[in-house]
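Researcher: Re-running this chain for the archive, since the previous output was lost when a drive failed. Same request as before.
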Amino acid sequence: MRARYPDAFRAHPARRLKTAAFIGIIVGIALFALWALDFSPQRIWQGLSRLGLFFSLLFPPDAHGRLPAFMKALGETLAIAFLGTLTAALVAFPVAFLAAKNVVPNIFVHFSLRRVFDVSRSVDTLIWALMWINVVGLGPFAGALAIACADFGAFGKLFSEAIEAADRKPVEGVLASGGSGLHRVRFALVPQILPVIASQILYFFESNTRSATIIGIVGAGGIGGYLTELIRTLEMSQVCVIIIMILITVAVIDFVSSRLRFAIIGRKPASA
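Model: Regenerated structure tokens:
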């Protein structure tokens, strides 16, 4: 192979130099980050014994009679994820059409909306939770609002990109048959993008189940509140029960949502 195609195996010196420079820059940034973050293998080695003690306290898992309360809090976490995801999708869906270039050609409209999406999704869910806790108080309502705000930007971007990537032929067909701009959206664009959007919403719901656990730690409701309290008091056997519950819930949601996603887009999941 090398004898038949010598040019393919002979790297140009300039290309080699660029590759070496790129690798050098990556290594340099990594070393600087290790120095700036005070990375110390010695500290990791010294903390291994405490990490082992931490894990040993997890077993055996024991809810100490609080399993009904944990189940209720886990249900609250799922409700936060569901309501936050649904609210974000419902608000982002119509706005995404205004942000799509093939629907609204006015550059100022879709440019402004794209920047709104950028601002919304650049703020982490945890930061949104802290903001909403100060506005509406502690509890799951603040958590649902936090997820809705963070996902609004992500959904808006993904939905508008899906609209712009839609096939133009159905659109031209609707317009050629005398359809209005609204008919173009309803009968040409929406049927094309709906499976993609439904798939994205299901994926975000699955991801938000984990996010709802995290924001509960700062007081936004759900199982995260119990998790914080029990870790502070080193009730690790109860922490283990909560972790197992979260793992089972996420696995079930992952299984169901993946099946639904593939059913919506008309493909079979790959066998494990």
